[in-house]
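Forum > Structural Biology > Help requests

Title: Can anyone predict the 3D structure of Nucleotide-binding protein?

Hi all, first post here. I have the sequence for Nucleotide-binding protein but no way to get a structure on my laptop. I'd be grateful if someone could post the C-alpha coordinates.
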Amino acid sequence: MRIILITGISGSGKSVALNALEDGGYYCVDNLPPRFLRELASYLAGEGQTRLAVAIDARSSVSLDEVPAIINDLSDAYDLRVLFLNASTQSLIQRFSETRRRHPLSGSPGHDADVGLLTSLAEAIERERELVAGLAEFGHQIDTSNLRANVLRAWVKSFIEQESVGLTLMFESFGFKRGVPLDADFVFDVRTLPNPYYDRELRPLTGLDQPVIEYLSAQPMAHQMIDDIGTFIAKWLPQFRDDNRSYLTVAIGCTGGQHRSVFIAQALAARFGDKANVIVRHRDAPIPVDGGAAHTPT
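Reply #1:
Sure, ran it for you. C-alpha coordinates for Nucleotide-binding protein below:
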Protein backbone atom coordinates (compact mmCIF):
# COMPACT_ATOMS: atom_id res chain seq x y z
CA MET A 1 0.00 0.00 0.00
CA ARG A 2 1.20 3.50 -0.78
CA ILE A 3 0.81 6.06 2.02
CA ILE A 4 1.13 9.81 1.50
CA LEU A 5 1.62 11.71 4.75
CA ILE A 6 0.81 15.40 4.33
CA THR A 7 2.08 17.78 6.96
CA GLY A 8 3.45 21.28 7.31
CA ILE A 9 2.16 24.71 8.28
CA SER A 10 -1.54 25.46 8.72
CA GLY A 11 -2.81 27.53 5.81
CA SER A 12 -0.14 26.26 3.42
CA GLY A 13 -2.54 24.20 1.32
CA LYS A 14 -2.89 20.81 3.01
CA SER A 15 -6.61 20.71 2.23
CA VAL A 16 -5.92 21.43 -1.45
CA ALA A 17 -3.32 18.66 -1.53
CA LEU A 18 -5.60 16.22 0.27
CA ASN A 19 -8.46 16.96 -2.14
CA ALA A 20 -6.12 16.38 -5.09
CA LEU A 21 -5.16 13.01 -3.67
CA GLU A 22 -8.79 12.10 -3.05
CA ASP A 23 -9.53 12.89 -6.70
CA GLY A 24 -6.66 10.55 -7.56
CA GLY A 25 -8.29 7.63 -5.76
CA TYR A 26 -6.64 7.89 -2.35
CA TYR A 27 -8.49 7.09 0.88
CA CYS A 28 -8.06 10.40 2.70
CA VAL A 29 -8.08 11.22 6.40
CA ASP A 30 -7.61 14.74 7.80
CA ASN A 31 -6.19 15.60 11.23
CA LEU A 32 -5.57 12.03 12.34
CA PRO A 33 -3.67 11.83 15.66
CA PRO A 34 -0.29 10.36 14.63
CA ARG A 35 -0.42 7.60 17.23
CA PHE A 36 -3.25 5.96 15.23
CA LEU A 37 -1.35 5.87 11.92
CA ARG A 38 -0.08 2.32 12.36
CA GLU A 39 -3.50 0.94 13.25
CA LEU A 40 -5.20 2.77 10.38
CA ALA A 41 -2.64 1.57 7.83
CA SER A 42 -2.88 -2.02 9.05
CA TYR A 43 -6.67 -1.99 8.96
CA LEU A 44 -6.97 -0.47 5.49
CA ALA A 45 -4.28 -2.77 4.07
CA GLY A 46 -6.26 -5.71 5.42
CA GLU A 47 -9.36 -4.36 3.70
CA GLY A 48 -7.53 -4.30 0.39
CA GLN A 49 -6.98 -0.54 0.21
CA THR A 50 -3.92 0.31 -1.89
CA ARG A 51 -3.67 4.10 -1.47
CA LEU A 52 -3.96 6.14 1.71
CA ALA A 53 -3.37 9.86 2.33
CA VAL A 54 -3.29 11.31 5.84
CA ALA A 55 -2.92 14.96 6.86
CA ILE A 56 -1.48 15.82 10.26
CA ASP A 57 -0.56 19.22 11.69
CA ALA A 58 -0.14 21.15 14.93
CA ARG A 59 -3.65 20.22 16.03
CA SER A 60 -2.02 16.90 16.92
CA SER A 61 0.74 18.63 18.87
CA VAL A 62 0.60 16.20 21.81
CA SER A 63 1.80 13.29 19.67
CA LEU A 64 3.94 15.08 17.05
CA ASP A 65 7.09 13.86 18.77
CA GLU A 66 6.06 10.30 17.92
CA VAL A 67 5.88 10.94 14.18
CA PRO A 68 9.56 10.29 13.24
CA ALA A 69 9.48 6.82 14.79
CA ILE A 70 6.09 6.11 13.18
CA ILE A 71 7.44 7.19 9.77
CA ASN A 72 10.41 4.84 10.13
CA ASP A 73 8.15 1.93 11.17
CA LEU A 74 5.66 2.45 8.36
CA SER A 75 8.44 2.86 5.77
CA ASP A 76 9.54 -0.70 6.49
CA ALA A 77 6.11 -2.10 5.65
CA TYR A 78 4.63 0.32 3.11
CA ASP A 79 5.54 2.69 0.28
CA LEU A 80 5.48 5.81 2.48
CA ARG A 81 6.06 9.33 1.21
CA VAL A 82 5.99 12.55 3.20
CA LEU A 83 4.86 15.84 1.67
CA PHE A 84 5.70 18.94 3.73
CA LEU A 85 3.90 22.14 2.75
CA ASN A 86 5.28 25.49 3.80
CA ALA A 87 4.61 29.18 3.13
CA SER A 88 5.97 32.54 4.20
CA THR A 89 4.51 34.12 7.31
CA GLN A 90 3.27 37.10 5.29
CA SER A 91 1.38 34.80 2.90
CA LEU A 92 -0.14 32.84 5.78
CA ILE A 93 -1.31 35.96 7.59
CA GLN A 94 -2.97 37.17 4.39
CA ARG A 95 -4.70 33.82 3.86
CA PHE A 96 -6.04 33.63 7.40
CA SER A 97 -7.22 37.23 7.14
CA GLU A 98 -9.02 36.59 3.84
CA THR A 99 -10.75 33.43 5.02
CA ARG A 100 -11.32 34.75 8.56
CA ARG A 101 -10.38 31.35 9.88
CA ARG A 102 -8.69 30.89 13.23
CA HIS A 103 -5.20 29.43 13.39
CA PRO A 104 -5.17 26.08 15.27
CA LEU A 105 -2.77 27.44 17.89
CA SER A 106 -4.76 30.60 18.54
CA GLY A 107 -7.74 28.55 19.60
CA SER A 108 -10.05 28.47 22.56
CA PRO A 109 -8.97 28.33 26.22
CA GLY A 110 -9.56 24.59 26.09
CA HIS A 111 -6.65 24.17 23.69
CA ASP A 112 -3.73 21.88 24.50
CA ALA A 113 -2.07 23.24 27.62
CA ASP A 114 1.40 22.27 26.38
CA VAL A 115 0.99 24.56 23.38
CA GLY A 116 -0.86 27.34 25.12
CA LEU A 117 -3.24 29.99 23.87
CA LEU A 118 -1.52 32.35 21.45
CA THR A 119 -3.42 35.53 20.70
CA SER A 120 -1.12 36.86 17.96
CA LEU A 121 -1.48 35.19 14.54
CA ALA A 122 2.20 35.72 13.75
CA GLU A 123 3.13 34.23 17.12
CA ALA A 124 0.93 31.19 16.47
CA ILE A 125 2.51 30.64 13.05
CA GLU A 126 6.04 30.80 14.42
CA ARG A 127 5.15 28.44 17.27
CA GLU A 128 3.76 25.98 14.75
CA ARG A 129 6.96 26.20 12.71
CA GLU A 130 8.85 25.08 15.80
CA LEU A 131 6.48 22.17 16.42
CA VAL A 132 6.63 20.70 12.90
CA ALA A 133 10.19 21.68 11.92
CA GLY A 134 11.51 18.19 12.61
CA LEU A 135 9.16 16.64 10.06
CA ALA A 136 10.45 18.62 7.07
CA GLU A 137 13.57 16.47 6.71
CA PHE A 138 11.54 13.31 6.13
CA GLY A 139 10.00 14.28 2.82
CA HIS A 140 9.55 16.56 -0.11
CA GLN A 141 8.92 20.24 0.65
CA ILE A 142 6.76 22.60 -1.39
CA ASP A 143 6.72 26.34 -0.76
CA THR A 144 3.15 27.43 -1.57
CA SER A 145 3.65 31.13 -0.82
CA ASN A 146 3.13 32.23 -4.43
CA LEU A 147 1.25 29.22 -5.80
CA ARG A 148 -2.27 29.15 -7.17
CA ALA A 149 -4.41 26.21 -6.06
CA ASN A 150 -4.41 24.63 -9.52
CA VAL A 151 -0.60 24.77 -9.65
CA LEU A 152 -0.34 23.11 -6.23
CA ARG A 153 -2.71 20.36 -7.36
CA ALA A 154 -0.54 19.77 -10.43
CA TRP A 155 2.62 19.66 -8.32
CA VAL A 156 1.03 17.17 -5.92
CA LYS A 157 0.08 14.99 -8.89
CA SER A 158 3.67 15.16 -10.14
CA PHE A 159 4.90 14.22 -6.66
CA ILE A 160 2.81 11.04 -6.42
CA GLU A 161 3.68 9.99 -9.98
CA GLN A 162 7.41 9.87 -9.26
CA GLU A 163 9.12 6.55 -8.74
CA SER A 164 9.62 5.80 -5.06
CA VAL A 165 13.06 4.22 -5.51
CA GLY A 166 16.10 6.46 -5.26
CA LEU A 167 16.58 10.19 -4.91
CA THR A 168 14.29 12.69 -6.64
CA LEU A 169 16.13 15.75 -7.94
CA MET A 170 13.99 18.84 -8.48
CA PHE A 171 15.03 21.94 -10.41
CA GLU A 172 12.80 24.92 -9.62
CA SER A 173 12.98 28.27 -11.39
CA PHE A 174 11.88 31.41 -9.56
CA GLY A 175 12.07 35.19 -9.55
CA PHE A 176 14.01 36.93 -6.79
CA LYS A 177 11.48 39.75 -6.76
CA ARG A 178 8.95 37.30 -5.26
CA GLY A 179 11.37 35.82 -2.77
CA VAL A 180 13.55 32.72 -2.56
CA PRO A 181 11.61 29.41 -2.32
CA LEU A 182 11.46 28.11 1.23
CA ASP A 183 11.85 24.54 0.00
CA ALA A 184 15.24 25.05 -1.70
CA ASP A 185 18.27 23.01 -0.63
CA PHE A 186 20.55 24.96 -3.00
CA VAL A 187 19.97 28.38 -4.59
CA PHE A 188 21.80 29.60 -7.69
CA ASP A 189 21.57 33.18 -8.96
CA VAL A 190 21.63 33.50 -12.78
CA ARG A 191 20.88 37.22 -12.95
CA THR A 192 24.36 37.86 -14.38
CA LEU A 193 23.26 36.33 -17.71
CA PRO A 194 21.99 38.57 -20.54
CA ASN A 195 18.30 39.23 -19.98
CA PRO A 196 15.83 38.50 -22.83
CA TYR A 197 13.36 40.81 -21.07
CA TYR A 198 15.02 43.81 -22.70
CA ASP A 199 14.21 42.49 -26.16
CA ARG A 200 10.64 43.63 -26.92
CA GLU A 201 9.92 40.52 -28.98
CA LEU A 202 11.19 38.16 -26.29
CA ARG A 203 9.69 39.97 -23.28
CA PRO A 204 6.25 38.25 -23.33
CA LEU A 205 7.82 34.80 -23.89
CA THR A 206 9.39 32.38 -21.40
CA GLY A 207 12.45 30.18 -21.24
CA LEU A 208 10.38 27.39 -22.78
CA ASP A 209 9.80 29.28 -26.02
CA GLN A 210 12.17 28.60 -28.92
CA PRO A 211 13.16 32.25 -29.58
CA VAL A 212 14.29 32.62 -25.95
CA ILE A 213 16.03 29.26 -26.06
CA GLU A 214 17.94 30.34 -29.17
CA TYR A 215 18.81 33.71 -27.63
CA LEU A 216 20.24 32.21 -24.45
CA SER A 217 21.85 29.26 -26.22
CA ALA A 218 23.90 31.79 -28.18
CA GLN A 219 25.33 33.20 -24.93
CA PRO A 220 28.63 31.52 -23.87
CA MET A 221 27.99 32.60 -20.27
CA ALA A 222 24.76 30.59 -20.21
CA HIS A 223 26.58 27.39 -21.14
CA GLN A 224 29.27 28.12 -18.57
CA MET A 225 26.61 28.66 -15.90
CA ILE A 226 24.93 25.35 -16.78
CA ASP A 227 28.27 23.54 -16.70
CA ASP A 228 29.32 25.05 -13.36
CA ILE A 229 26.02 24.31 -11.61
CA GLY A 230 25.85 20.86 -13.21
CA THR A 231 29.39 20.03 -12.07
CA PHE A 232 28.56 21.05 -8.50
CA ILE A 233 25.37 19.00 -8.38
CA ALA A 234 27.03 15.97 -9.99
CA LYS A 235 29.83 16.09 -7.42
CA TRP A 236 27.55 16.15 -4.38
CA LEU A 237 24.59 14.10 -5.61
CA PRO A 238 26.17 10.78 -4.51
CA GLN A 239 26.67 12.18 -1.01
CA PHE A 240 22.99 13.02 -0.71
CA ARG A 241 22.11 9.52 -1.91
CA ASP A 242 24.45 8.00 0.68
CA ASP A 243 22.75 10.13 3.33
CA ASN A 244 19.44 8.45 2.40
CA ARG A 245 17.94 11.69 1.15
CA SER A 246 14.78 11.13 -0.88
CA TYR A 247 14.51 14.66 -2.33
CA LEU A 248 16.94 17.40 -3.30
CA THR A 249 15.64 20.77 -4.51
CA VAL A 250 17.87 23.04 -6.58
CA ALA A 251 16.41 26.52 -7.06
CA ILE A 252 17.51 28.65 -10.02
CA GLY A 253 16.66 32.34 -9.73
CA CYS A 254 16.61 35.34 -12.03
CA THR A 255 14.84 38.68 -11.61
CA GLY A 256 11.32 37.74 -12.67
CA GLY A 257 11.56 33.97 -12.96
CA GLN A 258 10.36 33.98 -16.57
CA HIS A 259 13.31 33.69 -18.97
CA ARG A 260 16.82 32.88 -17.72
CA SER A 261 15.97 30.77 -14.68
CA VAL A 262 13.42 28.75 -16.68
CA PHE A 263 15.96 28.10 -19.44
CA ILE A 264 18.70 27.04 -17.00
CA ALA A 265 16.36 24.83 -14.94
CA GLN A 266 15.17 23.05 -18.08
CA ALA A 267 18.74 22.54 -19.30
CA LEU A 268 19.84 21.08 -15.95
CA ALA A 269 16.79 18.81 -15.82
CA ALA A 270 17.72 17.45 -19.26
CA ARG A 271 21.33 16.94 -18.16
CA PHE A 272 20.40 14.91 -15.07
CA GLY A 273 17.43 13.05 -16.57
CA ASP A 274 19.32 9.75 -16.68
CA LYS A 275 21.02 10.19 -13.30
CA ALA A 276 18.03 10.62 -10.96
CA ASN A 277 14.26 10.92 -10.81
CA VAL A 278 13.98 14.50 -12.08
CA ILE A 279 11.18 17.03 -11.61
CA VAL A 280 11.31 20.52 -13.11
CA ARG A 281 9.04 23.32 -11.87
CA HIS A 282 8.61 26.96 -12.75
CA ARG A 283 7.19 28.93 -9.86
CA ASP A 284 6.78 32.37 -11.38
CA ALA A 285 6.69 31.92 -15.15
CA PRO A 286 3.29 32.31 -16.89
CA ILE A 287 3.41 28.85 -18.45
CA PRO A 288 1.32 25.64 -18.23
CA VAL A 289 1.40 24.08 -14.77
CA ASP A 290 3.10 20.90 -16.01
CA GLY A 291 6.21 22.95 -16.74
CA GLY A 292 6.79 21.52 -20.21
CA ALA A 293 9.44 19.09 -21.32
CA ALA A 294 13.09 19.49 -20.52
CA HIS A 295 15.33 20.69 -23.34
CA THR A 296 19.01 20.68 -24.08
CA PRO A 297 20.53 24.03 -25.14
CA THR A 298 21.50 24.19 -28.78
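The first strand starts at residue 2 and ends at 8. The chain has nine helices and nine strands.
Shout if anything looks off.
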